[in-house]
Task: structure prediction
Amino acid sequence: MIHQRIVLAGAAVCALLLLLANLTSATPDKKEKSTGKLVLGKVLDPQDNPLPDAIVYLTNTQTRSIKTYIVGQDGTYRFPALSTAVDYEIYAQYKGHKSATKSVSQFDERSQVYLDLKIDTR
Result:
């Protein structure tokens, strides 16, 4: 009887320690948020008019992988859940014309980075 109570108490303590260990490891680090970084903005002509159907290219500078986004009528693009530990390069193309390439640094601690990409369509 006493032996059973000791075993049950030991099992309860082990279960509690395991639960606390899981909760502690599931807490996100301040620097690496679970949602990541959001890069968003608009693709515009020199008069600040949106350029629908422009294509935005986002390059991960570590892996050289590229994500693309085709903008809608309002010219907006968005790349959510990006790693906060990587630098990115971003530019847009529209009917054979290209914007300047901009950089998003891993050292930029903002969770949202807003960048307008301007394309001279002349």
